[in-house]
Inverse folding.
């Protein structure tokens, strides 16, 4: 088992630019050691287009434990994978989640998946990203039985759930160009003190500049607080996105000067033409069962803004409930 859990280290590792995917995932897993509950930590990067495949698998667990979850994922059709790997805002009991989905599915792949699930060790999983492009699954196995709905046996599991929002943002950033002040996706450059040195587009507006300065200062406070305060307190203000638009990255330029970059990092959510991009992002997260509080955290928005956008989106689409929303978007069998 690892040392003291430090969610800020995980967030920093996620946002640290590392061109090699395996090296990036290895660094991420290393920072998760404080959440080890007895049998190591495993990370999987998964894609699901015409078939489901694990592109990278690394970790400190035994080879048997790593292969057990790998075999389950590989046995899922893309439709099942989209349900099984819907992003979570908590660390959930993986076998319970997967068995529920496989039990209500038919076909040879579902039957094979059910057999693999029965052979899985006891483990909990945090899922981030979007499996249609790329999902990240962090697994925490334990070699003792658990009740089907047992919560993650770690006192700071809530903080690890918040980290999931940052992991999803980091995955999207990895699909963009190498971060630099000259990159078109960099819409603002700030000093570590929050001073805006350069900004374009929405980042150049008074609201954009104020929001970005607040976010830079919040990330600095989170790093300081992680050494003394509880992990959840340290993460509370450092949201994954700023006003639903930008992710904050700290970097060092060639001349050695430390700069903070605000990179445009919108979610690739639903393609519903009747909705604005802001409404689509909120609707996509709500469709995966996220709470208003978590959606607000991930998007860096007030809860009132989240509920207002969701109401407008559902009204435009003539959807009356979350159940109907799930059915409309083909997610009806997904975990709530």
């Amino acid at each position: 088992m690892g040392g003291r859990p430090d969610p800020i280290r995980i967030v920093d590792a996620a946002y640290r630019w590392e061109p090699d995917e395996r090296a990036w995932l290895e660094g991420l897993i290393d920072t998760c050691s404080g959440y080890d509950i007895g049998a190591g930590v495993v990370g999987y990067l998964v894609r699901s287009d015409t078939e489901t495949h694990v592109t990278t698998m690394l970790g400190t667990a035994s080879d048997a434990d790593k292969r057990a979850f790998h075999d389950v994922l590989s046995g899922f059709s893309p439709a099942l994978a989209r349900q099984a790997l819907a992003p979570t805002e908590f660390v959930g009991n993986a076998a319970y989640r997967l068995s529920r989905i496989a039990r209500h599915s038919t076909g040879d792949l579902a039957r094979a998946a059910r057999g693999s699930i029965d052979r899985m060790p006891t483990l909990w999983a945090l899922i981030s990203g979007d499996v249609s492009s790329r999902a990240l699954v962090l697994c925490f196995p334990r070699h003792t039985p658990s009740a089907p709905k047992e919560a993650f046996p770690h006192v700071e599991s809530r903080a690890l759930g918040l980290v999931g929002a940052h992991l999803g943002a980091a995955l999207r950033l990895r699909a963009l160009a190498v971060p630099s002040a000259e990159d078109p996706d960099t819409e603002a450059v700030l000093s570590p003190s929050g001073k805006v040195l350069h900004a374009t587009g929405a980042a150049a507006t008074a609201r954009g500049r104020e929001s970005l300065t607040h976010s830079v200062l919040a990330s600095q406070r989170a790093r300081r607080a992680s050494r003394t305060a509880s992990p959840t307190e340290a993460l509370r203000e450092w949201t994954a996105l700023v006003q639903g638009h930008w992710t904050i990255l700290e970097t060092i330029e060639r001349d050695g000067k430390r700069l903070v970059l605000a990179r445009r990092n919108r979610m690739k959510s639903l393609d519903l033409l009747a909705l604005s991009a802001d409404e689509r992002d909120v609707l996509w997260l709500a469709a995966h069962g996220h709470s208003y509080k978590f959606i607000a955290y991930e998007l860096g928005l007030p809860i009132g803004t989240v509920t207002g956008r969701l109401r407008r989106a559902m009204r435009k689409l003539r959807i009356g409930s979350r159940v109907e929303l799930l059915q409309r978007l083909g997610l009806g069998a997904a975990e709530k």
Observations:
- The mean pLDDT is 86.
